[in-house]
Structure formats: structure tokens, C-alpha cells
């Protein structure tokens, strides 16, 4: 691939639409996901599948009530919430997207948690409630209360949604009652979190990371470098680690998807340990959006990160309150890297080391 066809991530930043609104549907990786494509690897996963299939059947059988009479008849507890709680790689996002596609209702939306918080922050709670008026189903991916401000915003929005009878299905790596744990500990906010948790029925998903199952027996490694080929999706966008974080700090995470709409292949060079938690969280959100869009990712990493992917996150924060986010990020990053590996002839598989998912 000629260097003339490559552009810098900084130049892409200048063309990013920061006013773009989320399209309210699952991203490309999950655009055609359905329940039949889900393969349970644990009894809890099979039970979750059955519960969500039952939920979508109920949505089809209970059309939304319209008009003044319908509004007057709604009860405050009419809306329901389902909270998919489990580790990374157990299929929570797959099931969430399948629920969205299977629900035969027109008034439905699919958002990441960051997109929801940003939209409410820009428009205000009252306007956001008006925007979601009449919504039958909200699918919310990666629910995570990182600070007290987000807690209050989300509480108000969920109260409005439940009051109008909306079904909310969300995913998280953290149990609902433990949201915010280790991040903010004031008693008032713990009560707010419990108030949110009480509105959801929790569906626990256990089992191994499916990405690790797919590459059983192989050591989880990142590449020192992958060569670009004529088959590399264009446009090819390049960034050093310093340039990458300059861009990520400039944008709200809700706009990372808009940034990546101008990327076919991303080449990141010199990726090494991320020095602080704030940049690490930005990187986690960025990898989520890369993963959602199934973009081609080429990396060159330090020797330490190549040998042990968890070295990407500094020991000072790696195993703290956001550990599950860090581990999910590594799992998805390794899968993206493995997807960029050109297939080897059968006789070379024993001689060449392949990247694998954690």
C-alpha cells in the first residue's frame, strides 16, 4: 500500500462531525445479529436467551397505548428493565442487538451508554425525555456509572422512560447494585444507585470468553507489525500513540464513532503502556467503537505489550475499579488484531505464531 494513500488521524479529526447524532440502531458488527446465531456455552447463557426471546414476544403482543386515555392509564411501574450482567466475551452485546432486531415495534432505539449520557448532557433531561417519548424499547450497551453526575442524569432519564412504559434492556460488566463501587462512595449516591438497580431484573451470564475459546491453546499476543496489502480497506489512517491520545482527548467518547466513520483501516504505531487512568478509559471507549464497526486494525506495540497484553494498562490502576473495562478492552483488541492477520497456508500454521483472543 503506497504511503500516498495514507492520512493522519489528526487530519481526520479536522473533518469529524461533532454534531452528529447516533443512528439509534446496532453498529455494523451487530447489524444483522439474531437469536439463532447465539451459541450458549453455559446454562445461564441459555436461560438468558430464553428470557430475551420471551421479552420480544411480549413486546409484539402488547402494542403501545396511544392518546390521552393511554397516557392516563399508565402506571409508574409499567416499564420494566432487564439488566444483562456478566463478564466480557459471554455474548451480552450479541443478545442485546438480537433483542433490538427481534422486537417487532417501530419505536425502539439502540445506544451506547456514552451516547445516551452525551445526548442528555447536550439537550438536557427534559428535552431528552421528549425525544424518547413513546419509545417502546431502549437497548443500552455497556451501562457504567463512572461519576455522580452521570448517576443523576441516568436516574432521571430512566424514571421518565419507565413512567411511559418503556422496556429498557442494558448490558454491563458490573452488577447493578455495585455500579460506581470504588469510584465514588458518598452515601447519597449509593442510595441513587440502589434506586436504579431496584428497577431492573438482573439476568446473569456466566461462562468463558468466547474469543478465548476460538483460539484455545494459542498464546495471547499482539503483533509487532502487520504489513499493509492491496486488500487493506481504505482510507488508511495512521497515528502514533501520542497522536492517538491527542485526538482522543479532543473529542467526547460519544463522537469516537463519528471520527471512525472516516476510517477504513487504522494503523497505530508504538503502542505502549498507557500512563494514566483517564487516557486508559478514553482508549477503552475507542476500542469499543473500533470493535463495533469491525474496522481493520494494524498495530505495532512495545515488546512488553507484545509479551503481555495487560501491560497496556499501568499497574498503578490496572487492577482497580475499572479492571473489567480494561480486560474487556484487551479481549476486543486482540480479536481486532487477529482479524487483521492474513490467512496462512495449512503447512505454515505450525511454523508461524498467530495472534489470538484473550
How would you name the CATH homologous superfamily of the largest domain? P-loop containing nucleotide triphosphate hydrolases
Which whole number gives the mean pLDDT? Answer: 81
Q: Say what the CATH topology of the largest domain is.
A: Rossmann fold
Report how far apart the termini are.
Answer: 30 Å
Strand content: 5-15%
Number of spatially distinct domains: 2
Rg (C-alpha, Å) = 21 Å
Shape: globular
Class by SSE composition = alpha/beta
Largest sheet: 5 strands, parallel
What's the count of strands? 9
Low-confidence stretches: 71-77, 343-358
The CATH class of the largest domain: Alpha Beta
The portion of residues assigned to helices is 40-55%
Secondary-structure element order, N to C: EHHHEHEHHEHEHEHEHHEHEHH
Q: How are the strands ordered across the major sheet? A: 3-4-5-2-6
Tell me which CATH architecture of the largest domain applies here. 3-Layer(aba) Sandwich
What's this model, at a glance?
By secondary structure, the chain is of the alpha/beta class. 41% of the residues lie in helices and 14% in strands.
Q: What's the arrangement of secondary structure elements?
A:
Blueprint: E1 6-8, H1 9-13, H2 43-61, H3 67-73, E2 80-86, H4 92-102, E3 108-112, H5 113-123, H6 125-131, E4 137-141, H7 148-163, E5 167-172, H8 187-197, E6 200-205, H9 210-214, E7 236-240, H10 241-250, H11 256-260, E8 265-271, H12 277-292, E9 296-301, H13 303-307, H14 323-339
Parallel strand pairs: 1-7, 2-5, 2-6, 3-4, 4-5, 7-8, 8-9
Amino acid at each position: 500500500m503506497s504511503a500516498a494513500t495514507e492520512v493522519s488521524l489528526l487530519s481526520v479529526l479536522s473533518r469529524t462531525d461533532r454534531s452528529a447524532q447516533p443512528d439509534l440502531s446496532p453498529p455494523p458488527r451487530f447489524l444483522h445479529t439474531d437469536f439463532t446465531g447465539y451459541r450458549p456455552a453455559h446454562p445461564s447463557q441459555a436461560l438468558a436467551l430464553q428470557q430475551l426471546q420471551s421479552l420480544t414476544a411480549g413486546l409484539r403482543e402488547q402494542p403501545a397505548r396511544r392518546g390521552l386515555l393511554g397516557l392516563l392509564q399508565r402506571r409508574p411501574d409499567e416499564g420494566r428493565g432487564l439488566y444483562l450482567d456478566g463478564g466480557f466475551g459471554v455474548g451480552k452485546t450479541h443478545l442485546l442487538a438480537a433483542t433490538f432486531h427481534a422486537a417487532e415495534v417501530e419505536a425502539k432505539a439502540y445506544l451506547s451508554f456514552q451516547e445516551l449520557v452525551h445526548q442528555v448532557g447536550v439537550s438536557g433531561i427534559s428535552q431528552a425525555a421528549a425525544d424518547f417519548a413513546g419509545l417502546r424499547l431502549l437497548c443500552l450497551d455497556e451501562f457504567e456509572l463512572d461519576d455522580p453526575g452521570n448517576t443523576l442524569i441516568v436516574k432521571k432519564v430512566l424514571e421518565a422512560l419507565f413512567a411511559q412504559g418503556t422496556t429498557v434492556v442494558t448490558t454491563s460488566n458490573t452488577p447493578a447494585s455495585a455500579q460506581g463501587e470504588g469510584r465514588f462512595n458518598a452515601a447519597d449516591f449509593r442510595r441513587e444507585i440502589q434506586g436504579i438497580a431496584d428497577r431492573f431484573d438482573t439476568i446473569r451470564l456466566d461462562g468463558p470468553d468466547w474469543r478465548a475459546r476460538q483460539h484455545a491453546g494459542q498464546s495471547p499476543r499482539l503483533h509487532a507489525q502487520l504489513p499493509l496489502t492491496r486488500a487493506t480497506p481504505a482510507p488508511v489512517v495512521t497515528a502514533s500513540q501520542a497522536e492517538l491520545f491527542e485526538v482522543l482527548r479532543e473529542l467526547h467518547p460519544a463522537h469516537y464513532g463519528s471520527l471512525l466513520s472516516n476510517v477504513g483501516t487504522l494503523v497505530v504505531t508504538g503502542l505502549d503502556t498507557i500512563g494514566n487512568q483517564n487516557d486508559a478509559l478514553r482508549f477503552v471507549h475507542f476500542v469499543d467503537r473500533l470493535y463495533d464497526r469491525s474496522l481493520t486494525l494494524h498495530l505495532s506495540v512495545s515488546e512488553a505489550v507484545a509479551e503481555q497484553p495487560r501491560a497496556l494498562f499501568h499497574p498503578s490502576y490496572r487492577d482497580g475499579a475499572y479492571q473489567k473495562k480494561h480486560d474487556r478492552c484487551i479481549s476486543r483488541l486482540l480479536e481486532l488484531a487477529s482479524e487483521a492477520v492474513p490467512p496462512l497456508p495449512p503447512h505454515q500454521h505450525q511454523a508461524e505464531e498467530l495472534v489470538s483472543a484473550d
